[in-house]
Structures are given as C-alpha cells and as structure tokens.
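Deliverable D4.2, example record:
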Amino acid sequence: MSPTSNGVPCMLMRGGTSKGAYFLAEDLPDDPDERDRLLLRIMGTPDPRQIDGIGGAHPLSSKVAVVSRSPKADADIRYLFLQVGVEAATVSDQQNCGNLLAGVGPFAVERGLVAAGDQDTRVRIRMVNSDSLATATFPTPGGVVDYSGDTAISGVPGTAAAVLLDFAGTEGSACGSLLPTGNVRDEIDGIGVTCIDNGMPVVVAAARDLGITGYETPAELAADSRLRDRIQSLRLTAGKLMGLGDVTDAPVPKTTLVAPARDGGLISTRTFIPLRPHDSIGVLGAVTVATALLLDGAVGHGLARFPRPGTPLGIEHATGRLDVDIDLDTAAAPPRVRRSSLVRTARKLFDGTVYPRTS
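Output generated by the structure prediction step:
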C-alpha cells in the first residue's frame, strides 16, 4: 500500500446503475482482513447513513472495485468486486458486479494499466470473484477516455458513452454450474422456482405465486414485511440447494420475481438484494434471468414474450429496461452459454485521495 498523507488514492465512478470506489490493488493492504477493515473505514460502515465515509447509504452505492494488471496473457487486468455493507460491518467477495464492471476498463486506462487506442480501446478483464472473463470496449479518441456520448440507460439521468460488455465463462460463477440443483425447476415452500447461475446466483419465481402482481414499486415491496419473510425463506432453502450453504448473512442468491412484460420487453422483474428491493436489476442478474427464460420448463418461460431472433432480450424493471444478448446452446445437456453481452455506460465522478476514519 502506498498511502498519501494517511490517505489512499481513489477514483469514484458511476458504473451502470451503481456507484463505487475504484482502487489499484497496490494502493490497498495485501492482507484481505486488513484491506477490508480499511474499506469499512473508507466507506463509513457500519452506519445506515455512512455519514463518516464515502458510501452512499445504499447497497448500490457501497461498492468497491479493486483493479490490478493480470499476470496471465489471457487477460489485461484483474477486477475484484467487494460489496461493502451499510448497516453491518461486512465486506463480501461472494458475487460479481456487472455494473461497476462498466467503469473498470476506463479506470485501467486512466491509471496507465492499459494503453488506450486511437479511437476505441478493448480491455480483457479477469473477474476474480468468478474467475470468468469479460471484455469491455469503449471510446478513447486521441488516446483519452471519453465519457461523453448519447447512450442512455434506464435508472441514470442523461446520456454517456457506450461501454460494450461481452462475457464468457460466467455460468456457474458461484455455484459451479448453470443449474446448480440439477433441475430446470424446483419447488420451495410450495413455490415453483428456477435456481440458476450465469454470472449471478438467482432464484427466479413468479410474482403471482407470492401474492403480488410484480409491478409494485420498490417502496411498496419494501413495506411488505410478509413478502420479505417469504423471500428470505426461499433464498435460505435455495442457498443450500445451490451449494452455497447458509446464506443468512450472504448477499447471494438474489431473488427475482417475474411477471408478463408491460412495455414491449421479454419479461417484467422485481429483484431483491438480497432482501432490499432493487430499484432496477443488476447486470449479471439480468443476464442470468434472461438465460433462465430461454430454458423450456423454467419459471417465467411461459410468461415471456420472445422477440424475433437476433433482437435483444428486454428485461423490464422498476425504473425501465435492460437489454441483453444471450447465445445459449439449449441442445447441449446441460445447456451451455456460449456468450452474453450488453451495453452500459460509466462516468468518472472524482479522482483524488480518500481519507479513512482512524477508528
């Protein structure tokens, strides 16, 4: 670690619909426990307001990306995602974050880890959490990252430059296989579910089976304590079935409730992270849900409105829609994911030195 006057070099970025602190690995302690204690102090955790740190008092803005050069030729850089708790003093590496991923390539260029191209730059990123590969392509006219552009994504005001993300090897990111229970469909607490992992362990269930429409606002869902209890019961059992063990205090699996699309998409979703309703849906969560819907017999397959071949799959959520492309070999047994891709945006918010609290 090379702190500056007891501070740490840090870049705050919006990546997709999340916001996080980006660090070079060399600027943080090598020991994971020491690193995590430092990050808790930097983010201001535990505190529901994170008033004494740079966290945003919400899981979507209490995130960290740790970036380093890759020691292997198959990738340019390594990206470790850490989800920092807000009220609880936790730091978890049990999942990826595809939203913060959108900022990793630009950050690597800004920090000199990757040379920029004259027009665009392509960065191969080893996602440490799942040991899978993502490729980010973004504009760098004149060898400088350009964050401006005309691409809009749901949940973010204004527009910015497009960041194309391609994924490979994401299936079984945490569970070891695309369908970790061995089944396309299981039953938990009398509810039909599909337990699936294509970059994010997710429990997919029909909203109507839990007594809701699936079109409620996040605030309405958050106020439903009975629904929260049922979501927790589902994910606790699913965690064991998916090989994740006791997930009481873990951020995965996520739970996504599906209903017929209402705005021309494939499906409508409401996602919980893991119990707090998501304002939208995570990148790899959307990829995983879309993958599930392509499987005959999976929960939601019969509710989906499939577009013509070659058209992105629109995953509707509480604040808009996220379009994804999935190349799935359903003839294989079990099904195999060839690749997944989508477009996000990112923006540098500030670059400087963050000063952690001392205790």
